[in-house]
Batch of 2 targets.
Target 1
Amino acid sequence: MKTVFVTVGTTSFDELIESITSPETVEALKARGYERLVLQVGRGSLLPAAHSCPHIRLQAYRFKDSIAEDLKQADLVISHAGAGSCLEALGAGKSLLVVVNDKLMNNHQLEMARQLHMDSHLLYCTCSTLTQTLRMMDLSVLQPFLPGQPKNFANFLDKALGVQ
Amino acid sequence: MAVLVAAVFATLLTCLLFIIRLYIVVKTGPNYKPGTKGPVAVLVVAGSGGHTTEILRLMESLSAAYTPRHYVIADTDRMSEDKICTFERSKQHLDSESQVLCNGPGTCVPLCVAGLLLGILGMKKVLLVYVESICRVQTLSLTGKILYPISDYFFVQWSSLRDKYPKSIFLGRIV
């Protein structure tokens, strides 16, 4: 069953939860062949009940110790632009659509989403363009994302600090 | 009157000494090699969500030479506490020169200033290692801007920042 996993990390992003469960957007998901929608809503005030979306199989929760299993089962990940969420989704090799929260202070998250989008690692949109993006998106353009190399940091620090 | 002049003079002299000491402490960072004397103690500042994830990825790469590891978290941050405990339990390292390792959240600024002050007062040299968050591609965070002039090692993860901040270290993405 083709699954969409939505994650907002440790934040609250009610607008995204509201948008993704709206009839219009659910219709767009169904049109793309998605039949299951899993929502990780974090600190948000909206926690949709399982039967609240009649045309799609819905599951929602706030937090889990690890979202690795949900990521594994997903065919598409829709995420807020938080670094941890994006890196985890990209690290799991999943197609990623980032929804930028334009109500956030300064919204520095946009920088990374924009850069990763320019490097073709993810697609991005806002809540108001979510439905349209889901209808028109072409996931085949996405490039694999190579993981960061913390070892380079460790090697540099060892050398700089004289660690043997 | 003379007392007033003396007090003003003493204050100015203290300020001058402070500034000179600050300059010396900041400039001599690269010469300080705590690793040659034994284990390197680390103070890690974990902020909310993403910052904790990033910093734990960095911590994972550090060898057993970096011990003990102290973590500073907000007392409301249960999530970071859990992540850190899980991480440390998997490490099982069980003694030092010090460094403060931080990655973005503003909470680390007072700690870095405290570390710097220890150096200025001649009590202990504390290396400040700052890794700007991977979210920062074109602009530094406010914390980054504050700590850039006083950090001993300042890492950025995108080349656009390395170009704008020549003192920074760019090794590509490290988280």
Note: The beta strands of chain B are 40-45, 69-72, 97-102, 126-131, 153-156, 169-170.
Target 2
Amino acid sequence: MALPPPDPQFVLRGTSAAIHTLHFSCGSQEPAVPVLFSGSENGFIHVWNLKTHRVDTALDGHGRKSVYCVETMGGKDQLLSQGRDQRICLWDLAEGRTAVMDSVCTENVGFCRCSLLKVAQGRWLMAMAAKALEEVQVLELPSKTSVCTLKPEVGAKLGMPMCLKLWQPNCGSQPLLLAGYEDGSVVLWNLSMGKALSQLVCHQEPVMSLDFDSEKAKGISGSSEKVLSIWSLNEQQSLQVYKTHKLVNAGISDITIRPDKKILATAGWDHRIRIFGWKNLKPLAVLDYHTATVHAVSFSDHKIPSERLLAAGSKDHRISIWSIYTQT
Amino acid sequence: VCFIPDGLDCSISFVSHVLGKVCVHGRQKEILSVLVPRLTDLTKSDCIWQRICWRLVECVPDRWMEAVVLGFVQRAPRADVLSRLLGNLVVKNKKAQFVVTQKMLLLQYGHTTAVLQNLLGYLALDSLRRALLIKVLKELLETWGSSSAVKHSPPEQQQYISKAILICLSHLKEPEIESCRQELLTSMMEGVKCHLDSNLPQIRHLGMIVAEGISSKINTDGPVLKFQYEEDDEARELKSLLVQTPPFCVVPSPPDDENDKADAALPGVLESNKKSHPAAPVKPEEESDAELDSDDDLIPYDMSEDKELKTKAPVYIRDCIEVLTGSEDVDKWEATVKALESLVRKNPAATREVSVELAKIVLHLEEKTCIEGFVELRQRAQVAILTTDPIPVAKYLTSQFYSLNYSLRQRVDILDILVLAAQELSYPKSHGKTKHSDAQKPCIQLLPASDSSKDWRRIVDERIKSKTRRFATGQSQVERASGPNEFNSVAGHFFFPLIQHFDRPLMTFDLLGEDHFVLGRLVHALAILMYLAVNTVAVTAMGKALLEFVWALRFHTDSYVRQGLLSCISSVLLSVPAERLLEDVTEELLETQSWLGDVVEKDPDGDCKRLALQNLLLMENLKKKLKTIPS
């Protein structure tokens, strides 16, 4: 007899707006406090103290426009946030400061979350949707120089890029970009040449979110339909569909694979968070707490496995924190 | 009575005379109760006694023949006994033939089913008499199929004839059916038509059952006629008449059938077991192919609650309108239909803004997906809309009742909604949710209708209560809280438009012609509206108009319509205050009274007669009441 699904360990309230993005920063040693960053629809970024479960700081940098992406750049003192005011802001949060150090004007009115990849100490690559409809631009941070612009070929009709993932096959080799587009296809781009290496049509509807496991060269994408698509990358760098999984209700907003690559979580439009085993996509749990669409899920980066957490942010203004499958 | 059989020639005519005379004087029971059993025994195996018996009845003079034959047919226990007793009397004697084939079947209808079985079985038993059986069947079918007979004869007679037809059919053999197949078919078609045309459900059922019986007999191979109706006791009894059980048959087949069925069931079970086994081994193999990995350490949680998300119903009335008129999303449409009534009741102000439009949409609402209780949901939503904003919606609905291109179902729906809404409006509001009973036939009860008492009455009562010393309190009755009668202001709007255009035929709708079904429902609806209008201001005007309406239609041929007209009169007598009746409505009352007397005497329908009698009694009571009140 299977156990009923667990309840959230705790719930963070106080944003008074829908939450669109979450990011943990718990890797630092004691006495540093584990922290969760959340971006809301009212333009605020809240820094949650995971010990007291209260907001430590609220950052207002996007002119009250919705913040839909937050990422840390090496520790919790440097934050990157992306908002609907067409800006990507870089924050300096060390020693209690709340200042915007720098900002990039994207001139893009879409919802595509940018993707960060650390390539060297103090240097990052950031891929973001560019001004033109189908283009993706890759910048180097913090210099803000453009590395390349990825344009699909004429007549490809991919639509807007919906989600991006930068990754490196092994350390030091050339970074690659996986992009999910509005027409349901996932494209693998080579950044140095600026060319598409492979394209795979995974869904009939726009790809809402994707995540990639570079060790196994396997990725997963979710869409507004009822199907999850798992695809793999073979030696020739071409994408193939590996498996599909049918869901009970349509619509996935976010997918994330846990850093230990054991499980993954999906955020659904049907208010539910689903946990799957990554190896075989075995359904493990359905967490039904929220009362509106879940917009974001994120796993924490705790060093000690038993402390690992899963956070889910929803349109109902709550962030639920779960402790699930922490024994493995 | 003792006879000497062997060799002696005796004359029995004297005995016949005696028998006849006794029977005709009404003493059939006494003499035949002795005679028939004795003769039954005697004639069981003895041919001579049989011949004596036949002689006995043949010699009865014609003027007494009817009584004797009737007595015999009624007293004989079985058809073969009757055959032994009467022999071929019906063939030889004209009077006996008339009695058996005409009088007992077509002119009388009080005999029991057993008597019918005996009579028709008797006709079937001898080859000489079988010709009569077929003749009888044809005549019965002619009566059954004649539309005037269906309209004007009492339902009991129609049931009797139907039984007789079914029994005749059960006796017919193949060659006989072959010879008259065409006639059977023709009469069945005609008969079914006039039976289904009737407003009384009992007549319709009779028609359907008999038609099914005929069809099953004439189409032994190929598709048979099958109607949909409620299987009540009467239907079962009639259907059982179609099959004749021979008196001495043993019941052999069921045990064999059961064994066969059990045998058939077992192999089925074995097969299915076998099938499941091959399936099972395949699965473990598949699983063992998969790698053993650490994923197996992760135990899934219980995911049985993970079901499809239900669509929410809209929360605003205008959203409902949008969904019902345009939306392709069937889940949303379903949720809207289910939630509509409660939404309308919770948002009266919002509903009043769009009431007529909403009423129009719901009136034309067709079932898009299969929802349980769709008709009831639609009706309740319409009643809710009508009670929230009575005047404009009533205006709309009554105008649509007389418009072109509506189906009968929609027109009858309009009547039902008006009646239910009137009922709700005229009941005291604090009652909470009143039960909406489907008021098709209003029962005439002498109940006091809802009071709209004013505050002053309550204050005076309390003052009196406080000032009087009570020696004993009787049983205290819970007094119903009262409020203003909401039906008062709108009764006229419900009633008068309905009564206005009944004699104006339209292209697709002719109340006085073919659509007498709707006319019947209209009349009943008017009776209920009249009844509910008690204590309203417009009641006298309504009563006057209704009596004139009744007068115009009083000779209608449909008995359902006449019953409705009589209920209208009852409602008028109950609702309109007696003083107003005498002062303003006198001529109409007198005319109605004379018509009621006519109905009591001459109407073929028993229900009509009963209703007319009740009305006359009501009038008498009214007169008495007025005489006792000192003026």
Note: Residues 492 and 538 of chain B are 6 Å apart (CA to CA).
